[in-house]
Design brief:
CATH class: Alpha Beta
CATH superfamily: NAD(P)-binding Rossmann-like Domain
Radius of gyration: 19 Å
Largest sheet: 8 strands, mixed
Shape: globular
Distance between the termini: 29 Å
Organism: Mycena belliarum
GO molecular function: oxidoreductase activity
Helix content: 40-55%
Protein name: NAD(P)-binding protein
CATH topology: Rossmann fold
Keywords: Oxidoreductase
Number of domains: 1
CATH architecture: 3-Layer(aba) Sandwich
Structural class: alpha/beta
């Protein structure tokens, strides 16, 4: 596609959505981050009908997660689902989650990184980062890298092809990283600074984080050898009814509500895209390596991502990200050294 127009957006919103993809997940472990509500919960419900050996609902809130787990069991009769807690706004929580998985998780066949936040104003996390940037663009990559060894081990021990799916969005086509940010010595640190996060910049923050997460997945995929049995991709669920926009207020909330009524997809329909990215294209899953998926097919990312400047920025951000995350967890660099080129 390369770019998104109003016409192409509307065509996608009104397009016919095929039934959800189904495969037999017997013996396999599926981990869904952000599984207690919205797209994450609906995708988890779909996985629950496929006989997973283990279905892990990773949620930030114990109470909301427990309620979602009970609802899942009631609506699907799945007996292999369990609740784990992780707060992506805290690096220590991500590290504890990875530690727990290393001890108790066993195999990992599908990692669906669905969690994200949309914040209209600057909020500083406990770790000193703008919270939206940390949750969407730092903690998700940290978790992917910390769980990567288990996924490669799963492939080797069970002769499977695990997948990491990170939820992106078509809004990345509208995202722009300001020139003064690109010219700064540290892109991510600049984006996360209180000085940069003015109300105007925060208004576009969610769009930028979705651009950044696509750059991360493309950079990660570029460093995974073709012989390594691991598929990583991003997926666009479309514009759906979602609680991610609950922080909206005033005119923005009114306009969003009008948009929902006019064009929003039911959350369940959007979740089919997430499921397809995780289990679709069974005849040749390698075709999904590093790709951006929308409407159950591979689509071209934005022209800027594909440009020389986009490629340079992708590599810069990867290097910066590794530098940030290695200070958070010393396992990051050994994992990259061993499993990535």
């Amino acid at each position: 596609m390369g770019r998104l127009t109003i016409l192409s957006f509307l065509k996608a919103q009104y397009a016919k959505h095929p039934p959800v993809e189904k495969v037999d997940l017997t013996g396999k472990t599926v981990l869904v981050i952000g599984a207690n509500a919205g797209l994450g919960f609906e995708a988890t419900k779909h996985f629950a009908t496929m006989k997973p050996g283990r279905l892990i609902l990773a949620c930030r809130s114990q109470s909301k997660g427990q309620a979602a787990l009970q609802r899942l069991r009631t609506e699907t009769s799945c007996t292999t689902a369990e609740l784990w807690i992780v707060d992506l706004a805290e690096f220590d929580s991500v590290k504890r989650f990875a530690d727990k998985f290393e001890r108790e998780g066993g195999r990992l066949d599908i990692l669906l990184a669905n969690a994200a936040v949309l914040l209209p104003t600057y909020q500083r996390s406990k770790d000193g980062w703008e919270t939206c940037l940390q949750v969407n663009c730092l903690s998700i990559p940290l978790l992917c890298l910390l769980l990567l060894p288990q996924m490669v081990r799963t492939a080797q021990e069970h002769s499977t092809l695990p997948r990491i799916v990170v939820v992106a969005s078509e809004v990345h086509y509208f995202a722009k990283i300001e020139n003064d940010v690109l010219e700064s010595p540290a892109i991510l640190e600049t984006l996360g600074s209180a000085e940069f996060c003015t109300p105007k910049m925060m208004g576009a923050r969610y769009f930028v984080t979705k651009l950044l997460i696509i750059l991360f997945v493309r950079a990660l995929n570029a460093r995974i050898a073709a012989s390594t049995p691991l598929v990583v991709n991003t997926v666009n669920p479309g514009y759906c009814y979602s609680n991610i926009r609950d922080s909206f207020s005033g005119v923005t909330a009114v306009m969003d509500r009008i948009m929902e009524v006019l064009v929003a997809l039911p959350t369940e329909k959007g979740s089919r895209q997430l499921v397809w990215a995780a289990i679709g294209q069974q005849e040749n899953p390698d075709k999904l390596r590093g790709e951006y998926i929308s409407l159950q097919r591979v689509e071209e990312v934005s022209d800027w991502i594909l440009s020389p400047e986009g490629a340079r920025t992708q590599d810069r951000i990867w290097d910066e990200l590794v530098g940030i995350l290695e200070k958070v967890d010393p396992r990051v660099v050994p994992t990259i050294t061993r499993y990535l080129s």
